[in-house]
GGDEF-domain containing protein
Amino acid sequence: DFALYQMKSKRGGAVEFFSSDHQQLLKRRHAIDFALQAGDFSRELSLEFQPVITLDGGRLVGFEALARWNSSRLGPVSPNDFIPAAERTGIVSRMTAILLSQALDAMKLMPDHLRLAFNLSARDICDRETALALLVQIRQSGIDVSRLDLEITETALLSDFDTAAEVVRMLRSAGASISLDDFGTGFSSLSHVHRLEFDKIKIDKSFVLKCDRDERSMNIIRSVANLCHNLGIQSVAEGIETAEIRTALQASGVDLGQGYFFSRPQPLAAVLQGIAMEDGRAAADGARLAG
Ligand code: C2E
Ligand code: MG
Ligand code: MG
Ligand code: MG
């Protein structure tokens, strides 16, 4: 907290305040790195699934798979903490392979028309061998590659753009769709959008969360929706928490959405139950129409 930092610095206590805060962070990091390396991934890692909905019509198009780690040492750890840790410690590719295997298994239990979005990390796309292994894993599962939206962030592209670009092209020509995740944060650049053919652009939730109170966020969202329309690709908004925001985004021309307003990420069993209920309702509607 910057204000506190300044206040304390007048009294000469700033350095201590800052360093203890920083030390806390480093301690937590070390604990996560350590627990990760000692962890039994096949038992501690799982996925939750968040619905992706068409904003006009409210139709379910699929889910985003989100990684969960319940560490036997630390308890639940956020992916915002353990994914960077996995990258740091060099085990992220092993982790991605385990998560992808769970994702592909989940897809086998879902109707064929539903898509699954799966997040790739920087390491996954900045190494040809790793990316190729993932593709082999998808092919061997028997799942139709074209049901997958592979999500990558611009930050991931930056670490080695040429290799990442080559890998993205490879995955795309194998039939996968590629989404540019967290657009608008970090080093958003139209040159990335230009140099790589994305199938979807996901507008970061930092804009969506405050777009009802912040005109500039709303304008940025509208511009990205327009950009996507002009490129003939889909825009996706993450972090839709209210009916008002959903309506505003729909009016701005955003194609797809996800967020707590529709559903929080849920374990597979809950999601499958939801799909079955939807199907039941659709069947009942069909019977009513036919009869
Ligand atoms: P992301 O890919 O941008 O995922 C969206 C995040 O927004 C998720 O956080 C999701 O739970 C959260 N979210 C969804 N709807 C709402 C909403 O209405 N309001 C708010 N405030 N948040 C919402 P989560 O699950 O904590 O994941 C955080 C990040 O960790 C992800 O951001 C992604 O970058 C990374 N991640 C998650 N799973 C994986 C994975 O399997 N592999 C890799 N490489 N990264 C992953
Ligand atoms: Mg994502
Ligand atoms: Mg995102
Ligand atoms: Mg995000």
About this structure: Residues 64, 119, 151, 181 surround magnesium ion (ligand 2) (CB under 6 Å).
